[in-house]
Target: Antithrombin-III
Amino acid sequence: MRAPDWLLVLAILPLASLAVPPDICSAKPKDLGLYPHCIYRSPEPEGPTAAPEAIPSSTNPRVWELSKANGRFALALYKQLALSKTPDANIFMSPISISTAFAMTKLGACNRTLQQIMQVFQFDTIKEKTSDQVHFFFAKLNCRLYRKKDATTELISANRLFGDKSLIFSETYQNISETVYGAKLLPLNFRENPDAARVTINNWISNKTENLIQETLPVGSLDSNTMLVLVNTIYFKGQWKNKFDVDNVYTSEFQVSGERRCPVHMMYQETRFRYRSFPDDHVQLLEMPYRGDDITMVIILPGRDTTLSQVEESLDLKKLTRWMDEMKETTVSVSVPRFRLEDAFSLKEKLQAMGLTDLFSPDDASLPGLLEDGSDVLHISDAFHKAFLEVNEEGSEAAAASAVVAVGRSINLNREIFLADRPFLLLIRESSINALLFTARVADPCSQ
Model:
């Protein structure tokens, strides 16, 4: 019987940054000594090799591949969530945060557990074949994502390990966790007072997310068998580059389903955005940048004769990338609702359905790299994710006012019309490397 549990927690919020040592962004792999307990080598690909793709200048090719791997995982996990919810239910999550947390988990994994993590999170698609290099590329990716974008934009992430004080955790594991992910270990007394430990962890999460994420760990989620809790938080606040004028907000109806409509406050502006209509795919795409231009919100709006479920089912990274590449800047008449999303769920069943089974099994999990003595007695009992997003005239979350010129409702015969009055998909991304920070289904903006 495998005694102690390892509980994985992810607290997410609208956008965030990673605390890493200042020298890691210019370091080379040999400078960091990232040598985890076990290393997995990806198999050589079968069949013809695809032609190399164009990579943005000043971007490490492996960081680009890691960003794409995170994108494929994001869409795969989104589909699992969609299967578990009704079509009129909202979805909100941070796939990059989830990937980061499980990359930290991978530090201690061996055997089939390590292989499944590599495959489910698509880390094995990176051309660098050995799993230890993934951590170095995560460090480089974090340096790209979490550099300061603009004085009005906050993208902040924080990680922490909470371990039972009765155990001696591997010094190698702790060093790599802190070097790459900024995750220091804080000893807590899970064995004698698990609920007090739960409160401590929830308070830490709340503090790191501007009090927007509360009670991530529900009552009863920790017990005396809990040995380690790994927490990742991500927080975002940004102002639109083109702010909506509050005087142009009007009341309208949002068609949640064929049978139900609800009243919303619709924000309006007409200006130049990246936009494209894809009649063959029955979608419109609109990209609205935040100040600084690095971070943008992309809305995928199905046509009136197409359900959001139909778009979700056929969506993959190749199609999404093609859509994004073909968008052009043009004048668009934009109407989108104000809304707030809050989502909380256990990741365990979703990840198990995707193939990550051993990690959650007391009998099959292999995590010997976590403890100093190399004993293989830990497994993950559950993984929680909680996320919050607010979109209004200023931007996402609450933002300070700034002077941005908004265009009124002038009549322009050459304009495109983008009216988001029905369920749509939403992505928040870092545009220079197309990193998906957040993904959402806005099916019912009246539910919060």
